[in-house]
Design goal:
By secondary structure, the chain is an alpha/beta fold. It is built from 18 helices and 17 strands. The strands form four sheets. Strands 10-15-14-13-12-11 form a six-stranded mixed sheet. α3 crosses α7 and α15 packs across α17.
Length: about 500
């Protein structure tokens, strides 16, 4: 790499960006692509033979001059080849995955995960390659002369073709526990921290959108103004758990993302459902269908077909989920231990936009609620996010089995678990049954009983709901993972700032 740099330093006005080192050269509009990195000092063989690098020049069909450096493997000396193998400068999610597996920090995945990683790696390479054109590598500073707009975006957008700024993102979907979020996070974390990127949960993203709409109400097209705000903050938008259940969200997504995509936003998202299955059976779904077409046009759709739920490989071992007789008493005892016996008292916290939430008992970052107080009240994701901004641990008493009679409460419980998982909060609970049994009456249309329901059986309370029928698998998986040692250790590190034993407070 340094040898290539020495050659390029002879040229004027060179701007480097990212591992692939695609650069543009002033008024000559020459693109230099260093497509194979040379990890060690590259020099000519001592015997005078050809240097282990070469270059070729050519002109593309668009008239752009091109100079390509590439390794000449046949001419690499033994010394240089050894140095190259020992000094790996590659970057990206696939490279990071290989390193983690090799070091033993991550168990090898299956071919489905590896195919998804290759798709993410391709997008990573393209993003790094076109960063000067898109402005991805120049952090946005609001109301500042140092903002993206003043740092040469006009210049770069005219040297590098506009088509590069309209690259397709990635829609990654599959069953629960197949590693979608982990893979997306690996992709996100490999890009420099100060680049214009944002990683957010879908619930949180829509809360931000509705908050911005409130701020810009009265404008001719408030959604365009919201999209402008969002695109200035982040060119790369990574959204976890894309799941549309709300009619208000469904009706604005197409116009919102239409504006975002036109402004160059690149979307990477995970979901349990294929795009065509989003908002299935929802109110006014015909108005939502154009968004599905837009999504499939602007994102490469990739399915992870793994049958393994990697979350369940770590069995629950810490006793935070209590079911059956005596579960409530055990929950209270464990809560008392986690709070070091401190007196829990009623308190009130501000959650969102001035709204207050009453906490029946709270102490030392731990909150205690009965199920009906959180899931049978008019609360939503915004309230739950606000709650976990104040508390790192929740004890929830008396979770019932879900069915037709408490369908709305089931939806709130699913949302609650999603928010807790996103915030890496610790969860203790007492429940009427184990996680699978809690949801066994919630089924999709295709799984619904075809024979008449009996008033003397559980089938009298069957909840036939496609969204809930799919979402329950994610919730069951997360309830299992949240009671595992690795999750609790991550909770201790991220929320408590310690590396304590996972059963500690």
């Amino acid at each position: 790499m340094r040898a290539a740099c020495r050659v390029l330093q002879k040229l004027n006005h060179v701007r480097w960006s990212g591992p692939l080192h695609r650069v543009c050269i002033g008024v000559e509009s020459v693109r230099i692509s260093v497509e194979s990195e040379i990890a060690n000092e590259v020099r000519a063989q001592k015997d005078g033979s050809t240097a282990p690098w070469q270059y070729t020049a050519g002109v593309r069909t668009d008239g752009e001059a091109r100079l390509v450096f590439s390794l000449n493997a046949r001419n690499l000396s033994t010394e240089s080849e050894a140095a190259l193998n020992g000094q790996d400068d590659r970057a990206g999610p696939l490279v990071q995955y290989e390193r983690r597996v090799a070091s033993g920090n991550l168990m090898p995945g299956d071919k489905n995960q590896e195919e998804a990683l290759r798709a993410l790696q391709r997008l990573y390479d393209e993003l790094v390659d076109t960063a000067p054109a898109t402005g991805l590598d120049r952090p946005f500073v609001a109301n500042s002369e140092n903002s993206y707009a003043s740092q040469g975006s006009w210049f770069w957008s005219r040297i590098i073709p506009r088509a590069q700024a309209l690259m397709r993102g990635l829609y990654l979907y599959g069953g629960v526990g197949t590693g979608k979020t982990m893979l997306m996070d690996m992709f996100y974390e490999e890009l420099p921290e100060n680049w214009r990127k944002k990683r957010i949960h879908f619930h949180d993203f829509m809360l931000d959108v509705h908050g911005l709409l409130q701020r810009h109400r009265g404008m001719a097209d408030p959604l365009e103004v919201v999209a402008d705000d969002l695109s200035k903050e982040a060119i790369l938008l990574c959204v976890d758990e894309f799941m549309v259940t709300d009619v208000a969200d469904a009706l604005i997504l197409n116009r919102l993302f239409g504006h975002l995509f036109r402004k160059g936003t690149v979307l990477v998202t995970t979901s349990n459902r294929a795009p065509e299955k989003l908002y299935e059976g929802g109110l006014q779904r015909d108005l939502f269908l154009p968004f599905i077409a837009t999504l499939k046009e602007r994102c490469v759709v990739h399915e992870i077909g793994s049958l393994t739920d990697y979350r369940k490989l770590n069995t629950a071992e810490n006793g935070f989920y209590f079911s059956g007789d005596g579960g409530d008493e055990l929950l209270r005892e464990r809560f008392h231990i986690l709070t070091d016996g401190a007196m829990a008292v009623p308190t009130t916290v501000e959650v969102v936009m001035g709204r207050k939430l009453k906490v029946p008992f709270g102490v030392n970052g731990c909150a205690y609620f009965e199920f009906h107080e959180l899931c049978e009240m008019p609360l939503g994701a915004a309230d739950y996010f606000g709650l976990f901004n104040h508390f790192h641990t929740l004890a929830l008493e008396d979770i019932p089995i879900f069915g037709g009679h408490n369908r709305v409460a089931a939806y709130r419980f699913v949302t609650l678990i999603d928010v807790m998982y996103e915030k890496k909060a610790r969860f203790l609970c007492s429940a009427e049954a184990d996680p699978v049994e809690l949801f066994h009456r919630c089924v999709t249309v295709s799984d619904a009983p075809t024979h008449p329901r009996s008033s003397h059986s559980d089938e009298a309370d069957i909840c036939v709901d496609n969204e809930l029928g799919f979402a329950k698998e994610r919730t069951i998986s997360r309830l299992t993972e949240m009671n595992s040692r690795p999750y609790l250790e991550e909770h201790a590190a991220t929320r408590l700032g310690t590396r304590t034993q996972s059963t500690g407070g």
